[in-house]
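Q: Structure for this?
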Amino acid sequence: MGNYYVTTPIYYVNDVPHIGTAYPTIAADVVSRFHRMMGDAVRFSTGTDENATKVARVAASRGADPMAFVDEMAAAFVETWRRMHVAYDDFIRTTEPRHHEATQALFLRLYENGDVYYAEYEGWYCVPCETHFLETQLAEGKCPDCGRAVEWMKEPGYFFRLSQYAQPLLDYIAAHPNWLQPEFRKNEAVQFIKGGLRDVNITRRSDWGIPVPSHLPNSEGLVIYVWFDAPINYITVAGYPADAEAFARWWPGTHIVGKDIFTRFHATLWPAMLMAAGLPLPAAVVAHGFWTIGGEKISKSKHGGKGFRINPLDLSQEIVEASGADIDVAVDSLRYFLLREMPFGMDGDFSLEALYRRYNSDLANDLGNLVNRTVTMLGRYCGGAIPARADVLPEALHAAKQVERCLGGAVVSYLEALKAIWELLGYLNRYIEEQAPWKLHKAGRAEEVNAVMYTLAEGIRFALVLLYPFMPVVAERAAAQIGWAHPAWKVSALAWGDLRPGSRTQPAGPIFPRIIDKETIVTEETPQPAAPAAPAPGAAPEQPLISIDDFAKVQLKAGTVLAAEKHPKADKLLILQVDVGEDAPRQIVAGIAAVYPPETLVGRQIVIVANLQPARLRGEVSQGMLLAADMGETGMAVLSPDTVVPNGSMVR
Ligand code: ME8
C-alpha cells in the first residue's frame, strides 16, 4: 500500500467539455479507482486553466465579466465529470487563492536563485496556443501547432533560464526509462530538447492572470505567463508551499496529458521549472493520442452544432435513445468505448457506428448476455440462489493478475486490461455452451449443475471487480443481479469463493438493451402481404412452382438460442436471442409461445430465415424468422439440425 497521485490536464475554459477532454479525465479516473481498489491512498485531481490571456479576450467579446465567465465555464466541467462518473478528489481552478500563492512562491524561489531574470523580449507568439516560437519553428510563417497566424510581440518581462536545463533534462530522461511514456513520444521529446532550448518570457502585460509579486522591480501591470502558472496546479493540489506534510506525501504525481502539450510543456518546461526550484520531478508523464472526427481535429465550431454531439453527456444520451439503456449505463458504455477503441498513445477516429458496434458486441453480447443467461439459469436450476462453492477457475485468477499488471504498474495499458477482462468473459461464454447446464439439469445431475453455475457466477464476479474502474455503475448493477449484494471493490482482497452460497440473485432484465440499426428497421408493424385467396373446398391448393434461383434468395441459417422470454405484450409470442455466428446475437420474435415454454428453447439449435427484412411485432424488433412445422390444431414443432452444427451454418 502506498500513496498514488494522478492528474489530468487542467482544461481551458474557453471550450466546452468534449470527448477529447473527457478522454484523459476518464483515463485518470480509471487508474485512480484501481489504485484505491489496491488499497493505496489516492489523490486524483483535475480542474480548469483560467488565467489565459484569451479568457479575458473571449469574456470581453461577450461583454461578460471574466470572473463570472470562468465561474460558469468551470461549473460546466464539474457537472459533466460528475455525470460521467468521474470521482476526483480535487478540482483545482487556477483563479483560486491557493494557486496564486503557489505560483508566486515558485516564481520568487526561481527569481531568488537567479533562474528568473528581467530582460527585453521580442518574438513570435501564438495567442490561441499561448506559446512563443522561434522564426525557424514556424510552419510557413504560421503557428506550427495550430496553423493560425502568429503575432510579433515586443515587451520587456521576466525570463526563465530554460536554456540551462537541456542537458540536465536529457540526463534525467536517460536515467529514468519509464519517466516519459510512451517510448515514441519520449523520443520526440529528446529530439526537441536536443534541438536547443531558449530562455522563455514568463510574464505578460495584462490585467487578467496571476500578478508578478509586487515587490519585484518593474512588476507593475505584469502577470505570470499562463504556461508557467498552469503546471504549478499539480503542486498546488499537493499542498505546495504551505503544507509540507501533504506535499511530502503526495508529490511527485503522475501526469496524464495529450500529445499536444507533452513535449514542449510537460517533458521540458515543467520539469525544468521543478529542477530549478530543487523539487522532485513528476513520477511519470504519460502522453495519449487524439480523437478525430472524420479525420479532423475535434472543434466546437465544426462539431459542436446540431449535426454531431461531441459533449460526452449528449453522446451518452444518443446511446440511450438508440438502445433504451438508462443514462448511467450509457455513460459507462462511452467510458468503456473510449478506452477500448484505440490504444492510449495513438490517435483514432470517433464514429457513432464504431460506438454502437462495440456496444452491441462487447457489452450487450459478451457481458450483458452472459450475466442475463447466468441469472436466468440460477433462477431456473438453483432456485435463484448461489449454489455450493466450486473449484477455483484459473482463468479468473489469470485475468486478475493481468489487470493488476496493466493498471497497477509503472506502465499503464487500459486496452490490455480490457482485453484480459474480455478474455475471461469469452471463456465464460464458451463454458456455458460446453457445459450445457440445461442438459445436465434435464439429466438430473444437480451437483454438476451447481458446480457449473457457481463457476459462472463467481467468474462473472471476478470480471465485474476488474471492470469496476471502467464501468462503476454497470459493475454495481450486475453484481446485485448475480447475488453479490454488498460488493467490496477491492482487488487486494479478491479471492475465489467470496461469493457466498445461498445469496439471492436479483433478476432485473438486460442491462444493455441492444441497439438495432435504425436504417434497417422497417416501420412499426410491417404490413404483411395480403393472404392468397383460400382455395375452394375440395380443390387442390394451387401453388406455383418456383425456380432454384428463387429459392436461393432465401438465406437459411442454423443458430443457438441464447435466451428466450415471453413477449410482454403478446401471449402467443416469444422473444428469442439467437446466435447465428455474427458479431451479435439476433432477436427473433416467434409465434410459438402456446407450445414452447421459453426455458425449453435456451441452448437449443434452430433454423432461421436470415435475410428477411426486420419488422416490429408488438413493439419488439424481429431480425428474422424461425422455422417450425405447423401442425394446425395439434401444435408446432421447431426445426433443429439433428446434430450440433457451428452457429451460422447455411441451411440449403
Ligand atoms: O492545453 N483528443 O487545455 P485544453 C484527445 N490548459 N484528447 C484531447 C482532444 C482530442 N481531440 N482535445 C483535447 C490545455 N484533448 C491547457 C493544459 S495543463 C497544465 C494545461 C485533451 O483545454 C488532451 O489531454 O486545450 C489535451 O492535452 C488537453 O485536452 C488539452 O486541453
